[in-house]
Each structure stands twice: as structure tokens, then as C-alpha cells.
């Protein structure tokens, strides 16, 4: 058994495919384990009074301030480090604790934090000031509860909601931090929690010679990457010897880049000391998964210093656009309030202590700014969240941030990840093309019969050489010549695909116990049911699985040989002489093999059509067929071969080895030698592999595009793949050109390339992460402006940080609302940066769906989420917000009219309870029932996504609509008050009762006017409120007089029941509401809204 020491970053996992977690917010290391160790002591100078006077106090002050600043910031400079194997105590400095922390607050910051988030809004701050002013006797108007009760209620609701969210985060973190890992110590294996892992620990990772890891949580790619252990430790006889050698690792400082690592491994006690360089190949990052073998790793980075944490940003508190718009409207109302109060005092002639009157007027009119606005909206948001989760058409949807459902109705940019979001990341072999004949999924059985036939013929020729050929078989007449040529070509092509790759078959032992793996290896248990393939790219696995399905199976592979099993059960052995791996520059891979049976040497090669077309012999079909397959959304690979004689190969090997030893330009010389072989190769076949899309991706993208949403695809994948998927998912429509942005590295290249792009019209843009970086560095505005005009943009090879950066750029430069959707840990920072983050619970784990504001189970659900729920939430909240404002404005108008009639006295028109009752019991149900209103049926909204475009313009709530409501309020308030005063000159006492009754009726009628689609609960709400009011008229009669009871103005029930009271109230109400009904009818007739044209 081998001992492996790759460098582990933070934790490791029991290989049941559990992603390794990382920590967000670390704390300083816990020193308790090591307090017995002698610490270095700093000898300090004696500090006397003289020192203090001579400038020591300055030093003390500055050091105190620095210390405070540092503790507050808790930012440490990241340095390179030396880590001794298995000796955490030898570390020179403290490293962060290896714990995850996703919480926003702790016990001490919770209350101040929540209060700050609430009073950040102008509205709530204003109410706090108003409520506090009631403690001043001179300013006291009515009772304290009229101001403090609503405010307390708002805060209580918010606190409870935040506390629940916070507790959920805490339990999730705790679960992650208490996962168990095995640590290797002098005394053997010890189990420990992931939060106790320290730099320098040796951790055992289960699931050898080389090990594969999966990095989907870092860069979104689900393919396996090969990792290699440190050579020097491989020669140690037993595990315990790791503690007897004296060695350390020197590692660079923690950084964001997940694709690079530099370090050295030094063993001091050997003679001479051994130095080995370490690169990215020797590391296992946190949040990656080990595929096979067992690893012992030394921990280099923990907690906050791990790559995955450095690549995630802190979650911010998201505030919806609607809330910001309402906030600006409340500021406008506040200005109006102050102006009104000043006018009142001016009309009074600034007599007496006018500033006190001014303040009293401000308090009297404070109902202009409705405190109930926030309560209503917050309850509305909770209701929308509940409706989204209860929607049967999108099961499994979770609303994690309940404060921004309206954002779903305002989106202009949708930024999506590719792997796992649009595609399933499952490759399927679809097409084999031999130039004259093409095989699809339905004709694969023909290939199978050809393969079986060709191997039967091969084994049949030597008379009794192999037991598998049945002796009783009659010699067949030779088939026609043409058939044999097709058959042999198929045989050659399949053999080439089965040999030219980097795939390793892995056998899981049936017993499933780790102790039995050695036995399984020795047994060479080649049975089919427990074989799995591992490779660095899923395409290769798909190809090898396909050759298995047609009868040629890869059963074993090591560094020097490969074994294939024929349909007849024979094992063919091939010796691997050279491998030329795939690189993104060469876009091809090659392999030279020698067949054991015949000794033939063959050079096989496969690669992208761009690279291969110049290497293979001239033919007339390759380019055309590649184009056809690409249009179907298939990934194409061209396969070719060349037979080599023994002399040719020896000559090549000598030159190749010389080139590998050269010091200058090694890479170029090696490439030149390999290219000497890559000439006039025989073209065997063209393969097409499909990356399957998620269910209903095409119609969903079509729907979103029609709704005026611009879709950007940000992916960590290769350019060719990304372009392929963009076409097959119809992100780029059939007739559109695709402009591939050439790689640029400096300012002048970027300038030229941007100009070239500017000349193109209506074409999709494909750009790689590096070029994007350069463009943003020099031509940020120009680039974003050009890209925003594109119907679709694809960014490939994006790092997680770049994804978040693009989101922030769009927000800053366009000011439009963005939405990010993804499913892996590499999308978390993008999801948190966007105005609205949606996570998909995918194969890549739950990290994205936990960090998102909304989590869905399938990509296709996003259509309904935006078109139906986004639309409704926004429209309803806009109507609700404006209505609540109207409710406050109308009563303030009445107060103004009342005061101006009564010689500008700052006396309240309605007493405390009436005011509280007005905003709650009497009108709350009908007004709140606006959250059930819908202007279009969900089916219509999905059928005509163009309706969504109107929402993004924000016309439901703007200064224009707001002014209309203000005018309505002033008109109605004036009518109600003047009407009451006109009709009741004789019984002046009854003004309050009449005007208040008319006011309540007006409000209820106005709700009925605003509603577009009735719901039975709305009707119930209307009658319930009316009932409450009528009941309170009977019981609360002392309130319906002017001023207090001391005036002796009791309101007899007898008066309320008279006809005069009823007809006068009805008359006032009709005058205040009828004109609006008429106006609404005319508006619907002459300029109907777009949706009514569809429904009529």
C-alpha cells in the first residue's frame, strides 16, 4: 500500500461523494492544546515614568488605537508559511480556525444590527422621532399608544423573522462543522470534528497510485482531475514513519487563484536533504471530492484562508427596488407635510409660540406618512412567499429571502451558469460518421454486429488457436467486398476510440469493505457490473462507454499497458509507448500503442476539427459534417491513425527523448518532434457526443427572451463547449451570427477587437474570462455598453470572482435589475451579488440553493416564477403601497380642512382610538386583500410573456401614478370634510360622526374600485370591516363628538339610526366616489391596458 502526502487544504472527506466543506468566518486558533509548550518570550525594556513622559503616552495611545482598529477589522495580512508534517505546534503564527460561519449577526450584534437595518429606512426613523416627541408634554397629542403601538408591532414582526432566519443558518453551520474526519497521529488514527482541524495535521482521506478529485464546487466542472503524491514519501515502509522523518512544506501565501499553487517539500534528516517542488498537481483543495484511493494529506490552509472561502463574498442585505421607490416617495410626502405645516402656521400669522404650533401641526399631519405601510408590505411579502411555496406547478420551490419577491417582476438581465443549470452534465454518444455512412442512436446495433463479425473472422482463421472459436462452425462464404470494407472501417474506428483516451477503469469490490480492495485487485475481477470509468473529461468516458456497448470493452489500464475485451471474451493487450496529452493550445491528444499479439505499432490521434483538418489526408466531407453536427449541438471529435514501422518509431523516440532533455525552449522542441509524426494521417471517423440539456430549457429560454430579459451565460467551461450549448439550448437563435471575441492580452489588442465587434449588428458575443478581464480593465464602459446591446452573451472560463464582478458591473453601469441562477459552489458569489439570486438544487450539492434568495428544483420553473409570481408580487405591492399612502393622505387632508375652518387650531379632528382603528380594524382587511388581486390569469401571463416587458419599465409605481393618487386623496378629503360641514350646520356636533362614516365607506368603495379580479376573501374583508365599524358606532359613541367627552357632546344612537344621517352620509360618499368610477370606466374604454386587450 502506498503512502500519499498531497497537500490538503483544510478538510477531507469519507468518500461517499460528500463535498468537502470550508469555513466562512474563522476565529483565532484555539491554543488550549498546546499551552504546555514553551512559548518564545519577548524581553521587554523596563518602562518607567521617564519613558511615559518622554513620548511613551503617544506610543500607548497609537498602539491602543491600532489594536482596536485591528480587532474591529480582524483582517490579517496573508503570508507564505512553513508547515511541519504532523506537528501543528511548530507553526510560528496563529492560523484561522477551520469553521464555517454563514451567520450575519452574533448574540451581541443581533438587536443593534436588526434595529439599524430597520431605521436605515427614512420611514421608520421618522416614526421613531414622532413617537419620542410624545414624551414632551407640550407636544402631546392624544394617547401614547396611538404612536407607539404600530411602531412596536413593526419592530416585533421584523425581529422574529430575522431571528428565525438566523437560527436556521446557525443549525446549518453547526451540522457542517461537526462532520468527523480521521487524523493520523503518533498513536494511530483519531476521529476529530472538521472545526478542530489545524494547519500541519495529517488527515486521511478515503477512496491508490494516483487519485482523482472533482472540483465542481470550485470551478463548476464536474470532471475528475488527476492528482499526484509527493515522490519522496512514497518510499516509506509504514504510515507511522511519517512522524519519524523530519520534513516540512513551504507554501505560498493564501490567494484566490484555484488553478495554481507553488511550494516545496523538504526532508531534512536524509543525506543529502531532499527538495521536491510542489505544484497544483499535488494539492487537494477544500470542497473537492476524492474519487478513488486513499490519501494522507498535510493541512496547509484552514478556515478563512482556503481557496473556496477566498472566492466567496460576504452575503449582503438585499433591498428591493420597490422598497427604494416607496422610500423616495415617503421623503416626498415628508416635504409636503412640512410645507403644509408651515403654511398653516403662516396663515395663523406666526402668532404666539409658533414653533411649538409648527411642531404640533407636523404631529397632527404625521398620518400623511403611513406607519402601516411597512407592516402591510412586510405581511404582503410573507403572503407572496407563501403563495410561491404553495404553487403546485413549481413544487419544491423555497423562498429563503422573504424581503424581495417583487424583484422577480423587474428583472432585465438573467445571468446563468451552464453546467448543471442548463445542462445535466451527462454525455451521451449520439453519432458516428465514417464519411460514406453515418450511424445514429437507432442504428448502433449494426455497428455491434459488424464488430462481432470482424472478431469472429479474426479468431476463425488460425484453425484451433483459441478455444472461443467454436470448431463446429461451417466456413462461411466470404461476404461481398464492399461490406467487408465498411466492416473493417468500423472495426478500425471503434478500436481507435477504445484506445485513444485517458480513461481508467476502476473496480469497486463487491464486498464493499475497504479491507477487501487488495483482494479485488489481485483477482483481476473484470466483471461488468462493478466497473466504473474515470477520466478528466466526461466526453472521454462517454466514448469508452459507447465502445463497451458495441462490444469492445476497456477492462484494465495502468501506466504502461491497456487491455481490451472482445465480444467473444478474449483479452487483447496493448503496450502504451507514448502519450501526448490534450492541451487547450493543441486541442488534440495522441497515443502510440504496440499490439501484443502482432507487434504492430500504431499512432492514434483524436481532437477538435480545427486542429485535425490540417493533419489528416485530404477529404471532402469532414468540414461539412462537423458543421452539421455542431448545428445539432453535438461536440465533435475527429479520430485518425497512422501505422508506424519499428524503424520509424525508434527514430522518433530518440529525437523525442533528446528534445525532452533540452533546457532552452523545451516545449517548442518537443512539439516540433511530435508534429513530424502528425502528417498525412488516415482519417477514421468523426464522433458526436451530446451534453444533455435539462428538461424544457429551450422553451424556457425562449419565454424569457420574449419577455425582454437578456440572458448571459457565465461558465467555467471551454469556449467550444460553451458555444455548442449556447446553440443547442437556443440561447442564440438559429439565424443569429456568433461573434467570438479573439483572445486579447493588452490595451491595443482590446481596442482593435472592440472596434471589430462594434461593426457587427445583432450578433451574440462569446468571450473568454481572460479577454474579459483585459477589456474591463481598459474599456469598461464601452465594453458593457456594446455587450448590453447583444441579444445574448456567453462568457467562458470565468472564475467565481469574475462572475460576481460581471453582475456588479451590470448593476452599476446599467442600473437595471439582475438575477443570477446557478447550482454549484462556484456560483455562490454571483448569486449573492445579484439583486435576486436563484439556486437550483442540483447534483453539485446544495451550496448554491442555500445561499440563494429563492431555490428551485428545475431550471424550467424559473419561467413561472418570474412571469406569474414576479408579476403578481410587483403589481400587488405597488397597488398596496399606493393605497396605504392614499389612506393616510385623505385623513390628513380632512385634518387640514378642519383646522383651517377652525381658525388654524392645532386640535386633532379624530381622537386616538379612531385614528388607530381607522388604520387597522376598519380598513385593514379590504386594503390588505389587494395582495390577492391579479390583473391576468397565470395561463395568460405565461402565454404572452411580452406582458412582462411593461413591468420592467416600472410604470405600476412611479411619480406619475403617485401624483394621481395624491390628487384623488385631496379631492376626496376635501369633499368629505366640506360636505360634512355644509350639510350639518345646524347639528355641528355630528360632524365627526358623519365625516368619519363617509370616510370609511369611501375607503371601502375605493378598494373595490382598485381591484381587478375579485376573490371571495375580498368580499368577506369588505363586509367584515363594515360590520366592525357599525358595531363600534354603537359602543364607542363618546369618541364621535368634537374634542373629548368633557364637551358634553354625546352621540345618541338614536341620531345614527335616523334617515337624515343615512342619506347625508350616502350623498357625501357618492359625490366623493362616483366621479372616480366614471373616470375609470372611460379610461378602460379609451386607453385600455395591454393585458385587457388579450383577455377581452
From TrEMBL:
- Cofactor(s) the record lists: Mg(2+)
Residues binding Mg(2+) are: 417, 419, 823, 827
Family stated for the protein in its record: Belongs to the cation transport ATPase (P-type) (TC 3.A.3) family. Type IV subfamily.
Q: Can you provide one Gene Ontology molecular function annotated for this UniProt record?
A: ATP hydrolysis activity
Residue ranges of the TM segments: 145-164, 332-351, 357-377, 884-906, 912-932, 962-982, 988-1009, 1016-1035, 1055-1079
Taxonomically, the superkingdom here is Eukaryota
Residue stretches making up the P-type ATPase C-terminal domain:
850-1088
Where's it found, cell-wise? Golgi apparatus, trans-Golgi network membrane; Membrane
Task: Give residue spans, biased composition: Low complexity.
Answer: 460-473
Membrane topology is:
Multi-pass membrane protein
User: Which ranges of the sequence are coiled-coil?
Assistant: none
PANTHER family xrefs: PHOSPHOLIPID-TRANSPORTING ATPASE IIB-RELATED (PTHR24092:SF50), PROBABLE PHOSPHOLIPID-TRANSPORTING ATPASE (PTHR24092)
Q: What is this protein called?
A: Phospholipid-transporting ATPase
Task: List the catalysed reactions.
Answer: ATP + H2O + phospholipidSide 1 = ADP + phosphate + phospholipidSide 2
Main location as per UniProt: Golgi
Q: Which residues form the P-type ATPase N-terminal domain?
A: 91-148
Q: Which Gene3D superfamilies match?
A: Calcium-transporting ATPase, cytoplasmic domain N (3.40.1110.10), Calcium-transporting ATPase, cytoplasmic transduction domain A (2.70.150.10), HAD superfamily/HAD-like (3.40.50.1000)
Instruction: Return the annotated region ranges for Disordered.
Output: 460-487
Question: Which Enzyme Commission number(s) are on file for it?
Answer: 7.6.2.1
This protein's UniProt keywords? ATP-binding, Golgi apparatus, Lipid transport, Magnesium, Membrane, Metal-binding, Nucleotide-binding, Translocase, Transmembrane, Transmembrane helix, Transport
PROSITE patterns according to UniProt: ATPASE_E1_E2
Q: Which organism is it from?
A: Erpetoichthys calabaricus (Rope fish)
Q: Which GO terms describe its cellular component?
A: endosome; plasma membrane; trans-Golgi network
